[in-house]
Amino acid sequence: MELEWVDGSVDLRCPVCAHSAAQRRVARIDVPWRDELVDIVRCVECGAVVLGATLPPSMYTDADWDYYIEQIAGVNTIADTLVQTGFGRGARMLDVGCGYGFALDLARFLFDWKGIGLDPSIAAARGKAELGLDIRPGMLDDAFDPEERFDVIFSSEVIEHIADPREFLAAARRRLSPDGVLVLTTPDADAVTPDTPWTTLYPVLSVGNHEFLVNADGFERLLREAGFHAKVWNVGPSLRAVAAHHPGPLESVRPEGQTAVIDLVRYADERAASAAPGSALALGMATRRLKWAMSENMLDRASAGLPALRSALLDRYQIDIDDPESVVGRTDVPAVLTIIFFNLGLLRMWHERSPQRGAACFAAAASAGAAQFERHGLYQDPETPTVEALARGHLALAFARFAPEKVDAVLAELDQGMERGAGNTELVAELRARVQAELAVQRSLVKRTYRRARAIAGTMKRRLQNGVKSGFLAR
Ligand SMILES: [Zn+2]
Fold this sequence. Notes:
This protein has 475 residues and is α/β, with parallel strands linked by helices. The chain has 3 domains: 2-55, no CATH class; 58-252, 3-Layer(aba) Sandwich (Rossmann fold); 319-442. Helices cover 49% and strands 16% of the residues. It has 16 helices and 13 strands. The strands form 2 sheets. The chain has a 7-stranded mixed β-sheet with strand order 8-7-6-9-10-13-12, with helices on both faces. Strands 1, 2, 3, 4, 5 and 11 form a 6-stranded antiparallel β-sheet that branches. β12 (229-235) and β13 form a beta hairpin. α1 (62-72) packs parallel to α9 (280-295), α2 (75-84) packs across α3 (102-111) and α9 packs parallel to α12 (336-351). The longest helix is centred in the C-terminal third of the chain and has 46 residues, at 425-470. The site of zinc ion has 8 residues, from loops.
């Protein structure tokens, strides 16, 4: 897909604020499934970005969902969003457009919330079976007419897919209990600028899947006009909103709230253990367990998960975590290996204190990241390119300890990687600085060791001479 930033004007009715007039065209994008370019338009009234030409959701295949379950589902971000609502234990939850159902599953695990998911996709059918959830194959329409009202109505990355968001919000409002909260997440329209890196912009736009994007002000206005009191905030290029019938429930909202990493590790543990051998879920959860444990330096917990991770990776891709060399140079490997081998490298290097074994893992991670780019002509998720750059930086750090002559070549690859989007200037500069510092430390270590060796040799020589003189050695 190629995107071109342009100026111009397009007549269009904004689906967010209903402003109907000449709107500002900001970009055009070339998509493989349409002959003409797709316009990206910004509403002059509310700042929403309006995208045309949506594809039917059936475009997603089982393989796409595997990739989601295995790697790209932001399970920790979903958990944080639940925590941020500040809602107590035991709530009744409705997840509209629940997809695979991670939010329902996390809510059950973290807060003992129980609920229903609505989603017509194949992902939902899989989540129902694989996570054991009450997921029904519909949406928030008249066909779904339960007796009860829900304490938490959750709908993540859904509203931007809906042609009439006002109708959607009215339907949610009717099913919300008097003190309940409606929790929404959606990409931020203000992230659509020429300054946003493509790896961020690509999923934000999701041309073909998204009808529109709102910015924070537009989102608040949309919710207010639908009869809600609302709090809206940013998390990176994404927006969070909690809305309620009255301001009371908003007092418990904590935009800075985060899930304790230990809880995430426990969740990943439970899910990795319950998943079918060889499944995307088994590998995805064992991978997340390692990543999360390493993010908090829980080295023992990370190590404890390695046997399960090893089996999951062998079962699914016949790749052995103990044989990172077998991955290097292969282009047919899944991107999840970038994350697995990077974290494994950290563990080998810092926990087991083996720069050699660490380097082998970092090389595998960097190679698997580059393979994703080579295979698809782009990075399909924002995590892989960043981790690929980190892996190269840590490979250079490891080499600085035992093979400093190889450092320059790795740093050159770090720069080449940045040109295709693996890491930005800031990250690469930081990694280079760390490598230079490490080289300096190693050089001074070598010097110190050399000096000490010479001093010891001198002492030995003197002792020997003294020994000879005293006749000690002659005996
Ligand atoms: Zn508008």
